[in-house]
Design a protein that fits this description.
Blueprint (H helix, E strand, L loop, with lengths): L3 E3 L8 H6 L4 E6 L14 H9 L3 E6 L14 H18 L6 E5 L7 H18 L4 E6 L1 H9 L5 E4 L8 H5 L6 E8 L5 E6 L18
Parallel strand pairs: 1-2, 2-3, 3-4, 4-5, 5-6, 6-7
Antiparallel strand pairs: 1-8, 7-8
Helix pairs in contact: 3-4
């Protein structure tokens, strides 16, 4: 099992299996609301407390749809402000320490100039709303991540596991990225993806409750 996993499912009842399998960090989701297909996607305080009590660190990514399917209207300045406001609310509810990271998802292979401008507007609004309380991360393709980072709207890059997306293979050859979703759709002990951290970013924004960001 990977030491870093992400999942849209509540991990509470699986914590002993995750620990015995070598998991050290669990990445969970902030969102606007859960759906019928993913009724446990939103990370809550009870699960965060359980993970912390077991000695596991955690990290978070905001994703409602992330512009999946090419719906670029989900990613503009207005939605960036909305999503960041919700992320701050949920971070406060679980007690996420300042100085850790909140990633924001771009779940599609956008590469046109117009689309990248809209995505940069989204992250500009996110960065403005977070006001330095949390490090901003971007999840997506190499092209998207590079555009957002070069605009200085995000510090951390989490490369999506879809390695055919534009710019991803090229970025994996360097040291800009912090996380890479190396294996997707692992079934057991609960549905999850396996991730690796870059040696250049041992601190990729993970945290524990009550003790601040993980150093």
């Amino acid at each position: 099992m990977y030491t870093i996993i992400d999942t849209p499912w509540d991990t509470t009842s699986y914590i002993p299996q995750l620990k015995s399998g070598g998991v050290e960090t669990v990445i969970r989701y902030y969102n606007l609301e859960d759906s019928s297909s993913l009724p446990e996607k939103q990370f809550g305080a009870d699960e965060a407390i359980a993970l912390a009590a077991a000695g596991l660190s955690m990290a978070v990514v905001f994703e409602q749809t992330g512009g999946a399917g090419g719906k670029i209207s989900d990613l503009d300045g207005e939605t960036g402000s909305r999503d960041a406001t919700q992320a701050l609310k949920l971070a406060g509810e679980i007690g996420q320490p300042h100085g850790s990271a909140i990633y924001f998802s771009v779940d599609y292979d956008y590469d046109s100039s117009a689309d990248l401008q809209s995505i940069k507007a989204y992250f500009a609004a996110v960065d403005a709303a977070l006001q330095g309380a949390y490090r901003v991360g971007v999840y997506g393709s190499g092209t998207v991540a590079s555009a957002v980072q070069q605009a200085r709207y995000a510090e951390l890059i989490w490369l999506a596991g879809s390695t055919g997306w534009s710019g991803t293979q090229q970025m994996l050859g360097g040291n800009q990225w912090a996380l890479f979703q190396r294996e997707m759709e692992i079934a057991k002990p609960l549905p999850h993806d396996g991730n690796t951290a870059s040696s250049a970013f041992p601190n990729f924004g993970q945290f524990t409750l009550g003790s601040g960001p993980v150093s």
